[in-house]
Amino acid sequence: MQDNSLQAVVVGAGTMGTTLAKLMTAHGVKVSVVDTNPQVLETSRLRMGANADAICFTTELAVGGSPDFVIESVTENVSIKQKVVAQIEADVADSTIIMTNTSGIPIDDIGSAMRIPQRFLGTHFFNPADIVPTVEVVPDSHTEASVVEQACRWLKRLGKRPAVLNTCVPGFVANRIQHAVMRECLSLLEKGVVEVDALDDIVQYSIGIRMALNGPLCQRDLNGLDTHLNIARYLYTDLDARQEPAALLEDYVAQGRLGAKAGRGFYHWSDGSYAQHQAQERESLQCILEIAAQHSRGNES
Ligand SMILES: NC(=O)c1ccc[n+]([C@@H]2O[C@H](COP(=O)([O-])OP(=O)(O)OC[C@H]3O[C@@H](n4cnc5c(N)ncnc54)[C@H](O)[C@@H]3O)[C@@H](O)[C@H]2O)c1
């Protein structure tokens, strides 16, 4: 749905800021994009394609005025985010709602020093933000209920599926689950139980394809909770439960094996293979979403 009445500012023009701005313009929201790095802004402008003309790109964080909302999507670092949020708050009207796209830093840690923390909340989008439907909406101790309701109304108007958490916990819901899965994956690699491509194949073509159709709890209902309990009884003592990141992950990052952007992570990547993978993934995600929606409609009838 087009909504030409809304005005928004996205602070941070990196991976997420760019797709957030894409999402807004696609829905007719008047958007400004701010980043302190002019090169990042230029890359963001180029990635925006034809929509770029409708967007104001600027290095000036003094956004001013009374946009309906500002989303900070800067580097995942609590002190940087605190400074950015303080600066945003100093510049905009008291009525502007301020959101953070943090992946899991507790919302109070970022916003509790604000003048009006009641207007601050977490809206955790997923990459690419213009395609993936879910947004975790995370209020914290100061957030007013009306602010949560307003944010959800706007998110729905942007075609999103807001999912409100009752309580803010580090990592929210999705990243807690993602990290629990990855802790076990890295442990299996470290123990030499399975090779990288076999692990990916097992997860993608078993649990992965099923979860595109059903959430984990619905999936367990379909399988039978008694069976799940029987497995849980013998398995949990053997699962990885360490309290620090895997040595394998520390080693890779220390070696510069940062993933596709660095040419090597678990796999080798070239600029071409990375770009092709990303382009194909956008198209494939749209197909998966259509199939998931059809499946849900089938369940309702
Ligand atoms: N990448 C993902 O998949 C993903 C998914 C969901 C949420 N997030 C969250 O979104 C946020 C942004 O992540 P990203 O992946 O886009 O990071 P990124 O590194 O691609 O972009 C961050 C941008 O913030 C800019 N920045 C830093 N300090 C600034 C300041 N003071 N003022 C203005 N701009 C500033 C940087 O120049 C950079 O362009 C993080 O909080 C991250 O955890 C990321």
Number of domains: 2
Give the strand tally: 8
State the low-pLDDT regions, or none: none
Order of helices and strands: EHEHEEHEHEEHEHHHHHH
Q: What CATH architecture of the largest domain do you see? A: 3-Layer(aba) Sandwich
* SS element count, helices: 11
Q: DSSP strand (E) fraction?
A: 5-15%
Basic shape: globular
Helix and strand content put the structural class at alpha/beta
Bound molecules: nicotinamide-adenine-dinucleotide
Q: How far from one another are the termini? A: 26 Å
Q: Could you explain the architecture of this structure?
A:
- With 301 residues, this protein is of the alpha/beta class.
- The protein folds into 2 domains: 7-164, 3-Layer(aba) Sandwich (Rossmann fold), CATH 3.40.50.720; 174-247, Orthogonal Bundle (N-(1-d-carboxylethyl)-l-norvaline Dehydrogenase, domain 2), CATH 1.10.1040.10.
- It is 48% helix and 12% strand.
- The protein contains 11 helices and 8 strands.
- The protein has helices at 15-26, 38-47, 78-91, 107-111, 145-157, 174-190, 196-211, 216-223, 225-235, 247-254, 271-300, and strands at residues 7-11, 30-34, 56-58, 69-72, 97-100, 120-124, 134-138, 161-164.
- It has an 8-stranded mixed beta sheet, with helices on both faces.
- Helix 1 links the parallel strand 1 and strand 2.
- The longest helix has 30 residues, at 271-300.
- The chain is globular.
- Bound molecules: nicotinamide-adenine-dinucleotide.
